[in-house]
Design goal:
The complex is a heterodimer of chains A (about 120) and B (about 110).
Chain A lengths: L3 E3 L3 E4 L5 E7 L5 E8 L3 E8 L6 E2 L6 E7 L2 E6 L8 E8 L12 E2 L3 E5 L1
Parallel strand pairs in A: 2-11
Antiparallel strand pairs in A: 1-3, 3-8, 4-5, 4-9, 5-6, 7-8, 9-10, 9-11
Chain B lengths: L2 E3 L4 E5 L4 E3 L2 E3 L5 E7 L6 E5 L10 E2 L10 E3 L8 E8 L8 E2 L3 E6 L1
Parallel strand pairs in B: 2-11
Antiparallel strand pairs in B: 1-4, 3-8, 5-6, 5-9, 7-8, 9-10, 9-11
The chains are: A mainly beta (about 120), B mainly beta (about 110).
Chain lengths: ~120, ~110
């Protein structure tokens, strides 16, 4: 079974704090993703990574950065948290099957519900 | 621009009734379409993909390129089908990147 774990289920932070969300997968997947999930907006891609030390911006990267120092770990960083970053954050991973994507399924973590006060 | 639209935020049906969750997409080439599902207190997971032409838990979805739609259907809804459903698209040369719709909450009443 593919396992994608996220460091916290619930997190409460104050405006201006630096926040780290950690994601670990145990299936040797090349691809890793960070989404935020908001009611009525669905899932929106923040950043993704195809390989170690590689990152690409998604649709809403502003206010976020990422780090991928090891293949199994993908971190999302909020440099200075703001109230509009209160959301559910989902991490996902998948195999890399070339630029066509193949049929690779994305496997999701349980999510981290972040509240910024 | 690539886009996935799910026009219904909430769909409420009675047990045994047919259900159709709508998904329309905007993409100039030949996309791959998926349905993901999130049951209460569970993680998001793949339900089905158009390329497999399979039926999962009684659900089917047909890609209609003419209407740019990928509606999810089930002839007889069950209470355990209650969940949030997301339609997703992957374009050619997009690697593993998916574009998700806004999601539709399905509520099946007894």
């Amino acid at each position: 079974d593919v396992k994608v774990t996220q460091s916290s289920r619930y997190l409460v932070k104050r405006t201006g704090e630096k926040v780290f969300l950690e994601c670990v997968q145990d299936m040797d997947h090349e691809n890793m993703f960070w989404y935020r999930q908001d009611p009525g907006l669905g899932l929106r891609l923040i950043y993704f990574s195809y390989d170690v030390k590689m990152k690409e911006k998604g649709d809403i990267p502003e206010g976020y950065s990422v780090s991928r120092e090891k293949k199994e770990r993908f971190s999302l960083i909020l440099e200075s948290a703001s109230t509009n970053q209160t959301s559910m954050y989902l991490c996902a991973s998948s195999w890399y099957t070339g630029t066509s994507g193949g049929e690779n399924e994305q496997f999701f973590g349980p999510g981290t519900r972040l509240t910024v006060l | 621009a690539q886009r996935v639209t799910q026009p219904e935020k909430l769909l409420s049906v009675f047990k045994g009734a047919p259900v159709e969750l709508k998904c329309n997409y905007s993409y100039s080439g030949s996309p791959e379409l998926f349905w993901y599902v999130q049951y209460s207190r569970q993680r998001l997971q793949l339900l089905l993909r158009h390329i497999s032409r399979e039926s999962i838990k009684g659900f089917t979805a047909d890609l209609n390129k003419g209407e740019t739609s990928f509606h999810l259907k089930k002839p007889f809804a069950q209470e355990e089908d209650s969940a949030m459903y997301y339609c997703a698209l992957r374009g050619y040369n997009q690697g593993g990147k998916l574009i998700f719709g806004q999601g539709t909450e399905l509520s099946v009443k007894p």
